[in-house]
Prior knowledge:
Blueprint: E1 3-12, H1 16-27, E2 32-35, H2 42-45, H3 76-89, E3 94-95, E4 100-106, E5 109-114, E6 118-126, E7 133-134, E8 147-148, E9 161-165, H4 169-180, E10 184-188, H5 203-212, E11 216-218, E12 222-227, E13 230-235, E14 238-243, E15 246-249, E16 253-254, H6 257-262, E17 289-291, H7 306-309, H8 312-328
Parallel strand pairs: 1-2, 1-6, 2-3, 6-17, 8-15, 9-10, 9-15, 10-11
Antiparallel strand pairs: 4-5, 5-6, 7-16, 12-13, 13-14
Helix pairs in contact: 1-8
Amino acid sequence: METEKNLDVLIIGGGPIGIACGLEAKKQGLSYLILEKGPIVNSLFNYPVNMQFFSSSERLEIDEVPFISKEAKPKRNEALEYYRRIVTSNRLRIHLFEKVMDIRRAANGFRVTSDKAAYGADRVVIATGFYDLPNPLGVPGEDLPKVSHYYKDPHFYASQDLAVVGASNSAVDAALECWRKGARVTMVVRGPEIGRRVKYWVRPDILNRIEEGSITAYFNSTVTEIRPDALVIQTPEGAKTLPNDFVLALTGYQPNFEFLEQAGIHLSADGKRLPEYNPETMETNVPGLYLAGVICGGMETHKWFIENSREHAQLIMDHITAGRTAAGA
């Protein structure tokens, strides 16, 4: 496998923050390449088709490029259009559908190996997000075809007995949309109520649907078994077996910690698994290896968003440029 001539910086992940890093690298005259294992903004592409962002369009902007949407809070298709146009109009150097397999220290920086090629880079930025690895339920039957950790389109569940596990934004959106398309929806919620972080204009809707009995909700309850035609849950009143055709286990996602550890990045020993990095430069404990975006939060996936991690791009590229200048002085 031939190694490409050394880049100043290789960026892993072609989401909004990876794109922001590419824009900043280009602006500062650095040679760069973005590697993305799927399409442009892969995570956003895999969001539900009707999803509406919590944030307003201006808070999702990168590199001061205006994001115009029909409503104050844009929808998935508008975000895909926005980020796609940024990539194409700026002719960003990005390889799509190319998955990074390994990052290793080399004599002159890093050797990054993908499923298609190998690259040499002085610096590497990991901006891979956390949407690819769902938090498992860990119960018998979770591997049945009727179980999914991702929700796409409500039409699929029309006239079916659907269980939605979770009470976050994704779970609430799925429950409401599928109910409105004719699914018989039951929510299984580990806590005592619908999540407090649910979008403020959506939360009253789900509470009202539960109160009127349109959507059944079991609180302080957990799934204990998934069967081909049923779901077994443990409730405060004891075990219950419910008729079931499909399960949407929307229990959240986590970064690829194994990938980070293989690259040499230290993770906190507590349950948060926070990666070690300098917040002023975003450089990790591995010199020359940086983190950007939501991956910085470890298991605290609610901590970082597009709007509060856009600045990572400039912090990183400023640090890389300053290091190059000092080395050449």
